[in-house]
Design goal:
This protein is mainly alpha-helical. The protein has 17 helices and six strands.
């Protein structure tokens, strides 16, 4: 992909500019925000077993977000729309997308509506249980993003208003859709965690093991108890051991001096930083726009102005990051 195409995507809103990602990474409270988000995610997987079982890998998690996103857009949530979106993004096969939708229905996260007016199209809608689960999950992360940009406060103050949360999921779902469309799938990244069952919960728990006074992502060795990590992620020790070995082979983790300890490689530390920078920026943009959308009773602030302010504020730290 050439530079002109990257620039076109940045201007069209399909790709968060790398300058913004680096500016967020350079923010003085970025490490605190990312640590808070990771720790909250690890804890949530222990307290919300229903969501964890239904959305146990990133593809299924995104599918759940897109179910809320489609419900908030014209055309609503239908099997055909969810299937087409997952196939378009090369996220899930048509059969798997349908299976996830059925599973969401079985656990009471979506419910079937009567036939559409043409008598053929069956539509679904998220239940109060699903909305509450995602609202609780997303609130933790938006609160973490607020450490970087306090302007998400209006959205948090109105978090329980249906139109605000719906606008939030509409913007976040579209942002994920755009980012997936330009994602370089061949580039080594955290995809080993993202595409494996319990992979992201494993990552969150590993990050949460960092010592409080360590950097984030952690630089010091992390002691990983295989049995405990497997239990927390609800998988067998064989599954977790295979995952850790594949991650080590990919150059993300390396053995430390003592048995049972692993250290994150510089490559993995950068990937974790970029992952959380993109995620937090997406949350900030979505929350700012959600609180300002006309149906939420406000005016959407231009996020381009926020980006310029962020870059100016963090210019010294950004320069140090680029020279590192």
């Amino acid at each position: 992909m050439d530079e002109a195409e990257l620039r076109r995507q940045e201007l069209s809103g399909q790709r968060i500019p790398r300058t913004i990602i680096d500016a967020v990474r350079a923010h003085p409270r970025f490490a605190e925000a990312a640590r808070r988000a990771a720790t909250a995610s690890a804890r949530l997987y222990q307290t919300d077993a229903l969501m964890f079982r239904a959305l146990r890998d990133t593809s299924r998690w995104v599918c759940g977000v897109w179910a809320l996103y489609l419900h908030a857009t014209e055309g609503g949530l239908t099997h055909a729309r969810l299937k087409d979106l997952c196939v378009e993004a090369n996220l899930l096969s048509p059969g798997t997308a349908y299976a996830v939708l059925i599973q969401l229905r079985v656990i009471g996260y979506v419910e079937l509506l009567p036939y559409d007016v043409d008598g053929r199209i069956r539509a679904y809608r998220p239940t109060a249980r699903m909305t509450q689960a995602f609202r609780r999950r997303m609130r933790h992360d938006v609160e973490a993003a607020g450490l970087i940009d306090p302007s998400v406060a209006p959205a948090l103050a109105r978090w329980d208003e249906p139109q605000v949360f719906q606008a939030m999921m509409r913007r976040l779902g579209q942002g994920i859709r755009d980012s997936v469309a330009v994602h370089d799938a061949d580039r080594p990244s955290l995809h080993l965690f993202a595409k494996r069952i319990a992979g992201m919960p494993a990552l969150y728990n590993i990050l949460a093991l960092a010592e409080p006074d360590d950097d984030f992502p952690p630089r010091r060795p992390i002691r990983i108890n295989l049995a405990e990590l497997s239990r927390r992620c609800s998988v067998s020790r064989t599954h977790m051991l295979r995952l850790l070995r594949d991650i080590e082979a990919a150059g993300l983790l390396a053995p430390a001096d003592h048995d049972g300890e692993m250290v994150m490689t510089p490559f993995m530390r950068e990937e974790v930083e970029v992952f959380y920078a993109i995620y937090l920026v997406g949350l900030i943009i979505s929350a700012r726009e959600a609180a300002g959308t006309p149906d939420a009773g406000g005016e959407a602030p231009p996020w381009e102005d926020w980006m310029r302010e962020l870059m100016q504020q963090d210019a010294p730290r950004l320069a140090r990051l680029r020279s590192a």
